[in-house]
Design brief:
Structural class: alpha+beta
Strand order of the largest sheet: 5-4-8-7-6
Order of helices and strands: HHEHHEEHHEEHHEEEH
Low-confidence stretches: none
Radius of gyration: 20 Å
CATH superfamily of the largest domain: GAF domain
Largest sheet: 5 strands, antiparallel
Shape: elongated
Amino acid sequence: MSIESRSLATSLFKALDLLGLLNARTSGIGIAGIVEEMGLPRSSLLRMLDSLAHYGFVERDEARVYRVTSKFRDWRLEDGDERLKTRHRSLMRRIADEVGEMAVLGRLQGRRILHVSHEEPDCRVRVIPPEGRTFAIDRMAMGKLILSQRPDLVPNDCSEGLLAEITKAGKEGFAWNRGESEEGIIAWGTWLGEPSPLTPMLAVTWPDFRFSEDSLAKVKEIMGTE
């Protein structure tokens, strides 16, 4: 073994080999077939499969057949963000027009939230679009959603209050930012699909003096009809 090869993450190679196998088997494959193809212990493969499923790359049906997800196929595309914009632009535009507040599309990138796109209304008092700006992940509504799926990203100095928020976000499917990233701004974030680190998210932001439960109810109504 060369010096260079000793520093390689062989467990990562195995996971990538596993993804390659599943991607090639479009009709899916059971664990017995995976063990035969990969030549690895069943227990090790099940741990990898569970991890990939948690991330959103792999799914298992009732017949216990594994296959890659549509999220994995989307993740591989070079124009993935453009597709996200196209897919969710009408929803964000409708929220901006009917609720009168800014809607933001985001996803996880590395250890931060990437703001992919936004739609905003024509208001005298407006919220500054987040694109191009950076906020601590644990101070964002979308960030708290991600942390509910990626506990490894939770800060070591996380307070009990924040841990409770993250746990609640994982159960309820939505999260809040009440002036934590920017003073005077309230944001409500939710998933645009089944929760996973690959799933895009939407956040709606209000100046705190303009927020109301009726306004939030309108957002939820619009999302429920899309």
